[in-house]
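Q: Short-chain dehydrogenase, please. Structure only.
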Amino acid sequence: MEIKGKTILITGGTTGIGLEAARQFLSNGAKVIVTGRNQEKLDEVKKLYPALVTIKSDVANADDARSLFDQVKTLGGIDILYNNAGIMSGPSNLGLANAKHFELAKNEMDVNYLGIVNLNNTFIEMLKARKEAAIINTTSTVSYVPLNLAPTYSASKAALRFYTTALRDHLEILGSNVKVFELAPPVVDTNMSANLDRKGITPEKLVNALIVGIRKDQSTIHVGDTRFVYVLHRLFPALTYRLVNPAQNRHKLNT
Ligand SMILES: NC(=O)c1ccc[n+]([C@@H]2O[C@H](COP(=O)([O-])OP(=O)(O)OC[C@H]3O[C@@H](n4cnc5c(N)ncnc54)[C@H](OP(=O)(O)O)[C@@H]3O)[C@@H](O)[C@H]2O)c1
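A: Structure for Short-chain dehydrogenase:
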């Protein structure tokens, strides 16, 4: 798929992977719209990259999704919907069997899964009407093997991976022009991974791989360790679980 000349909407484009994606898609000749919940952060990224369009919008809020659609339509529509925004609770918010965990878990599912389903539903007819269009959903290594420090986050990414595969098939059966990409990152050095004590790859490296994958129409874009984890967990699930969840996680869960 060609990127130059396309208009892309990146949810959660004010920090981390989304901000780097905005930078790289702009430099590859795309028009870029980014969202986020915080107006100050949106103003900062607009100052950094004046060509960006910024819209305040919460992925988990259905009214925001409708208003986002209306604003995007006024701007001429989009060719690519890149579902990047995501949240991970913990590890300090753990404790699986309590009300606090339930609230956090509900929010994680709303942002990381249901919000994405809602945005895809909201934008699908707009995308179908374009000559060449795509949805990009962001899963993770933990969609194959759960991280014991982030139980619902892992579950939300597993749900998203299953949904993404089925959505791709469904759209193909309907003869739709909308491609569905799954971006499966390993640990990436951003605010989200700061508490994990794991060295990740840079957002720049991840987004480079995403752009190569899109250009090659590679439906699942495994980056870095993700391919290794994917293959290993099919052969040796218990070993892979221990590799993803080293002894220091047990220590964290005990304190
Ligand atoms: N970092 C990793 O190791 C890693 C690994 C695998 C997958 N991923 C996935 O990659 C994606 C990006 O992660 P990241 O590491 O770049 O995270 P990040 O640095 O925490 O950035 C998250 C972005 O999403 C926005 N956001 C959060 N909740 C939102 C909501 N409800 N509505 C709209 N925007 C929202 C944030 O801005 P506001 O808070 O201002 O709204 C921010 O711009 C996520 O889906 C994450 O699960 C990350």
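A: Brief note, in case it's useful. The chain has a mean pLDDT of 94.
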